[in-house]
Specification:
There is one protein chain. Strand 9 and strand 10 form a beta hairpin. The radius of gyration is 20 Å and the shape is globular. It is α/β, with parallel strands linked by helices. It is built from nine helices and 14 strands.
């Protein structure tokens, strides 16, 4: 069953009800969260998604926010954090960890299908060996669950391993296969391969800053990869460790990012904090029903975005675009710190 099925009015009604219940659950279970809600006077009823109380995403860098007992914590996830900055800490119990894995799989199944595909990874194997596991490494490791016969495009020194790619394509080049990498790595290393990747499905994310500096936008990225490697099935996605398991997936024609049924976005005017109308840029707020073990269900990010349309694209719901980081916001030390891993 598709997780891209709800038109916006129906989605909003379902999510407001579920997220309002989750807000009260976290209010009871997480004392710091309760204090925040009390301080801002947040009280039900909430009629619209935009009425729900949000937390700034950077709060997870400075506060321990969990809604389960310490002995119920199954896994603690950390964001990459730039040098000298505290990483975010996200607390999962077994139930939340299982749900995020299940729903990520359901979202990606939309473009990958039911079977694990042979997988070409635009990175070096060393990125997943780091015991502290950078955000880039964690992203690669997470995506490896959806592929098989994992082949890395780069060797241990970060150089293109043309022979490995050639051998992979000899085995799998005539069938569908998965290509995954962070956006800048894909741009840097795939175009010069001279390989036919026309049967590949590319999933990529993050790292647009360097491409913007080279005046490469999403349309140019897609055009050049199609022309130079034959890659036409390309899906960007947007997600973050603070709402692990929730990804917003690009439509097949690159017309924008779409929300799965259990999530949505609200664009807020950074001056008034009110919801911005369609076509007006603002700060991206992400909502998701997956964070049950910590109060991360309604988060204001430090990313700028704009809703391009509602129920007017290849999938139902809001169709939105990420425009970049809020000026002066802390840089998210992910794939833009390519040399540092």
């Amino acid at each position: 069953m598709s997780v891209f099925s709800l038109a916006e009015p129906e989605r909003e009604a379902v999510l407001v009800s579920e997220l309002a219940a989750l807000t009260e659950r976290h209010r009871q279970a997480c004392l710091p969260y309760r204090r925040i809600l009390d301080a801002i006077g947040a009280r039900p009823p909430y009629e619209r998604l935009a009425d729900l109380p949000w937390l700034p995403v950077r709060l997870f860098k400075t506060h321990e926010l969990r809604s389960v007992r310490e002995d119920q914590v199954f896994r603690v996830l950390t964001s990459s954090g730039t040098t000298g900055q505290e990483p975010s800490r996200v607390y999962l119990d077994r139930e939340a960890a299982a749900a995020q894995t299940r729903m990520l799989a359901a979202t990606l199944r939309e473009v990958l299908g039911e079977r694990r595909l042979p997988m070409l990874i635009v990175d070096s194997r060393s990125v997943v060996r780091d015991p502290t596991l950078s955000a880039r490494g964690a992203g690669v490791l997470g995506m490896m669950n959806f592929g098989r016969d994992h082949t890395f495009v780069l060797d241990e020194q970060g150089r293109v391993d043309a022979e490995a790619v050639k051998a992979f394509l000899a085995r799998h080049g005539s069938e569908r296969f998965l290509v995954f990498g962070f956006t800048f790595m894909v741009w840097l290393h795939l175009r010069g391969l001279g390989a036919d990747l026309s049967r590949g499905v590319l999933i990529h994310s993050g790292g647009w800053k360097r491409l913007a500096e080279q005046a490469v936008d999403n349309a140019e990225f897609r055009r050049r990869l199609a022309a130079e490697c034959g890659l036409s099935q390309i899906h960007n996605f947007y997600g973050m460790v603070e709402q692990i398991g929730t990804v917003f997936l690009e439509g097949p024609d690159g017309d924008g990012l779409y929300c799965p049924d259990f999530a949505d976005v609200v664009i807020r005017d950074p001056e008034t904090w009110q919801e911005a109308p369609v076509g007006e840029p603002g700060l991206i707020e992400v909502v998701s029903t997956l964070p049950t073990s910590y109060p991360g269900h309604v988060l204001l990010t430090e990313d700028l975005g704009v809703v391009r349309g509602v129920d007017d694209g290849c999938r139902p719901g809001k169709r939105f675009e990420v425009l970049g980081r809020l000026p002066r916001a802390e840089a998210r030390g992910c794939s833009d710190t390519m040399g540092q891993g």
